[in-house]
Specification:
By secondary structure, the chain is an alpha/beta fold. Helix content is 45%, strand content 16%.
Length: 187
């Protein structure tokens, strides 16, 4: 697994969401690296040239492999954002780790919802992903990216309201939509 590592102290693993990579956390290193051994991962296929499967199981297995390489005597903190939150949840379910704290932001995993809430979640997901799939199938990846980010931000124009650096990274990772919308894990 590719990653950026900075600092000293307890482990702090940062797992990115869709349409980005470990570089999304670079702005956080200055504040965190003085207190933590920060490891910002890049999930498989979010960096060009990767091989193998793509999906929650593949990404969770990759994360598990990294976590197993760490010194288990040091405290472990994990942050997962969006799709990365789903990866973290899956990794923790697959293999129990002595994790001190986990922070998950905007997980899309509906596994713990009641049936009535699951129906509402599915309806919301369908309305959000309809425009994403439409743009993708037209071959208009920038439009699909904008739809996905607007949907994740829960408002039209959210993509445009982000900084230029963030928008450029998300558009540069538009090729990952082919993997994300057609997930196939290697396990």
């Amino acid at each position: 697994m590719k990653y950026i590592r900075r600092g000293n102290g307890d482990y702090l693993i940062l797992v990115h969401g869709a349409l980005t990579d470990a570089s999304m956390w670079k702005g956080h290193f200055k504040a965190l690296a003085s207190n933590f051994d920060v490891i910002a991962v890049t999930l498989r296929h979010f960096d060009e040239g990767d091989i193998g499967g793509f999906g929650l199981n593949t990404h969770a297995d990759d994360l598990i492999e990294l976590l197993n390489e760490l010194d288990e005597r040091k405290p472990l903190y994990i942050v997962g954002w969006s799709y990365g939150a789903d990866v973290v949840l899956n990794a923790l379910v697959k293999q129990g780790f002595p994790v001190d704290k986990v922070f998950l932001y905007e997980p899309g995993y509906p596994g713990c919802l009641l049936e009535s809430e699951l129906n509402l979640w599915q309806s919301d997901a369908n309305s959000m992903f309809g425009p994403v799939f439409a743009g993708f199938h037209r071959g208009d990846l920038p439009s699909a990216v904008v739809s996905l980010i607007d949907g994740s931000g829960n408002r039209k124009g959210y993509f445009q309201s982000q900084s230029e650096v963030v928008r450029e990274l998300q558009l540069a990772k538009s090729y990952t939509l082919a993997y994300q919308l057609n997930q196939k894990s290697s396990h």
